[in-house]
Backbone:
C-alpha cells in the first residue's frame, strides 16, 4: 500500500512537471513529495527526475514507469470501488449531442445486464477529455468524429463507430414556405436557423461554406443544446438539423416536418476507451448498447 502512495505522488509530479504543483494538488507539503520520490528512487535504484531550481525533467526510467503507474493506479481505484460498493462504476465524457440522443437510451439497455451499476456522464471539451481518458480518470469518450480527428493520444485509444447517418432539416409542420428543391446556400440565406453547433465543429466544414456562414452571420441562433434548438423550431419559423434517426420519431408523432439536408454532412459519432481497457466487458457492453439504439 505504501508503494501505491509513492506511485500516486510520482504520477502527479510527472504529469504536472512540478513538485510544488503536485504537493498542492495532493494537499501535501513540498517536503513530503520530495521524500516520496526519493524513497521510490532508492527502492528501485533508479533516478526518476533531473531537478534544477527552474525545471523538473523526467529521466528515461520515469518515462517508462509513467504509463504503467497510471494503469496500476487506475486498476487499484477500480478494484477499491468494486470491493467497497460491489458495483460497477462507469465515467463517461461526451459532446452534448451524444448525451441527448444516444447515451441515455444506452443506459436503459445497459441496466438490464448491470442493474446495480453506477454511471456518471459529463460534457467537456474534446482535447481535455482525451487527457482524462489517458490518465484513466474517465472510462469512455463519446464525441463526433470531427472531434476525434484532432484529438491527442488517439494511438492509445480504441475507437468504435456508434452512429453514422445523414442529417435532416427539421421545421414545424405549419411552416409557411416550401423548402424542397432549395440549395443549402438559399436555405441559409433566406431563413433563420437554430443550430447545436460550435466554432470547433465549423472548422471542419468546407471552406466555401465556412466563408458563407461568416459573411452572412449565420446561424442566427447557436445553442450547444439540441433539445433547446428543437423547442425553438416547434414554436417559430426557425430551421434546424437533426440526425435522421432522432428526427424520425418527431416526424412520426407530427411534432416536426423534415426534408433531407442538401449537402453531404453526416452525424458520425464514435466511442473511445483506453487501449488497455479493451478487455473490460462492462465498457464494451455499454458501447454495444449505444450501437443498438
Residues:
Amino acid at each position: 500500500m505504501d508503494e501505491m502512495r509513492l506511485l500516486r505522488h510520482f504520477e502527479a509530479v510527472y504529469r504536472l512537471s512540478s513538485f510544488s504543483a503536485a504537493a498542492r494538488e495532493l494537499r501535501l507539503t513540498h517536503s513530503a513529495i520530495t521524500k516520496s520520490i526519493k524513497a521510490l528512487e532508492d527502492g528501485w535504484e533508479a533516478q526518476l527526475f533531473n531537478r534544477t531550481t527552474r525545471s523538473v525533467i523526467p529521466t528515461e526510467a520515469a518515462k517508462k514507469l509513467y504509463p504503467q503507474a497510471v494503469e496500476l493506479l487506475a486498476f487499484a481505484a477500480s478494484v477499491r470501488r468494486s470491493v467497497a460498493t460491489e458495483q460497477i462504476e462507469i465515467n463517461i465524457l461526451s459532446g452534448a449531442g451524444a448525451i441527448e440522443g444516444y447515451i441515455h437510451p444506452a443506459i436503459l439497455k445497459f441496466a438490464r445486464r448491470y442493474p446495480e451499476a453506477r454511471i456518471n456522464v459529463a460534457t467537456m471539451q474534446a482535447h481535455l477529455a482525451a487527457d482524462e481518458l489517458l490518465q484513466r480518470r474517465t472510462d469512455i469518450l463519446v464525441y463526433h468524429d470531427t472531434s476525434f480527428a484532432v484529438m491527442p493520444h488517439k494511438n492509445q485509444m480504441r475507437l468504435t463507430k456508434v452512429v453514422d447517418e445523414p442529417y435532416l432539416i427539421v421545421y414545424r409542420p405549419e411552416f409557411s414556405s416550401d423548402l424542397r428543391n432549395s440549395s443549402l446556400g438559399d436555405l441559409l440565406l433566406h431563413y433563420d436557423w437554430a443550430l447545436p453547433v460550435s466554432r470547433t465543429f465549423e472548422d471542419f466544414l468546407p471552406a466555401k461554406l465556412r466563408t458563407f456562414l461568416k459573411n452572412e452571420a449565420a446561424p442566427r441562433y447557436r445553442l450547444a443544446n439540441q433539445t433547446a434548438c428543437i423547442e425553438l423550431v416547434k414554436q417559430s419559423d426557425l430551421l434546424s438539423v437533426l440526425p435522421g434517426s432522432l428526427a424520425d420519431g418527431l416526424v412520426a408523432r407530427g411534432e416536426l416536418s423534415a426534408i433531407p439536408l442538401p449537402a453531404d454532412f453526416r452525424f458520425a459519432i464514435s466511442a473511445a476507451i483506453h487501449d488497455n481497457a479493451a478487455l473490460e466487458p462492462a465498457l464494451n457492453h455499454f458501447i454495444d448498447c449505444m450501437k443498438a439504439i
Notes: The first strand starts at residue 49 and ends at 51. The chain has 13 helices and eleven strands. The two ends are 43 Å apart (CA to CA).
